Amino acid sequence: PRVRQQTAKSLIGLKAISLKEMDPTTDHVYDGYVLSVTIIEQTYTWTPSIHLVIEDENFDCERMFIYSFPDGQGKYLTNKVFTIGSKMNIINPYLRLGGTDMKSLVRIDDFSSIIMQSESEQVLNMCRCCGEPNALHVCSKCKQARYCTKECQTIDWQLYKHKFICQRQ
Predict the structure, then answer these.
(1) Nearest Cα to Cα of residue 149 among 121, 128, 166
(2) CA 78 from chain center: how many Å?
(3) What does pTM read for this prediction?
(4) Which residue among 4, 43, 48, 167 has the highest number of C-beta atoms inside a 10 angstrom radius?
(5) CB 115 within 8 Å of CB 76
(6) Highest mean pLDDT: which of 18-27, 76-85, 112-121?
(7) Keyword annotations for this protein (predicted)?
(8) Using H for helix, E for strand and C for coil, what is the string for 31-44?
C-alpha cells in the first residue's frame, strides 16, 4: 500500500537523513526529515514519471522517480532543471519498493517536496565517473558525458557501460 507524502513549509526543524539511514526493505515516508542529494546521471522522462539517479552526501546512490510534476513540463524539467550536478533537498523523503523489480527507490508524489539548491551550489561540468567539477574532456560521440581525465572516461565506458546509453548528438 502506498503512503502519503506531506510537504513541510520549510527546512527549519527538519533532521538530515542519508540513504544509508533509510530502510530499503520497506515502504516508508520519513516525516520530519530532509534528504540532500546530487543528480549524477542524465535524467529521463517516462510517462507518468521522471527517472533520475541521485547520490547523497555520503556518496550512496539510489534511483528517484518523480510523479505529479506539472503537465507539459517533463521535457523542460529533464533538460533544464534536473540536470547532472544539480543539487536538491527532498522534504519527507519516501523510500519505496519498486512494483516490478522490488528494488528500493526514492519516490516523489508531492512535487513541492523538492527544493532545488541554488545554482551556485550546482556541480558544473561534473565528471560522469568520479563526480569532480569542471571536467574538460567530452565524449566525442554523445557530446554530453564529461570526464576529468582519460582514465575516468575509460572507467565509465568499461565498468559503468556508458556505451549502452551513449547516442550521437
Answers:
(1) 128
(2) 11
(3) 0.79
(4) 43
(5) no
(6) 18-27
(7) Metal-binding, Zinc, Zinc-finger
(8) CCEEEEEEECCCCE
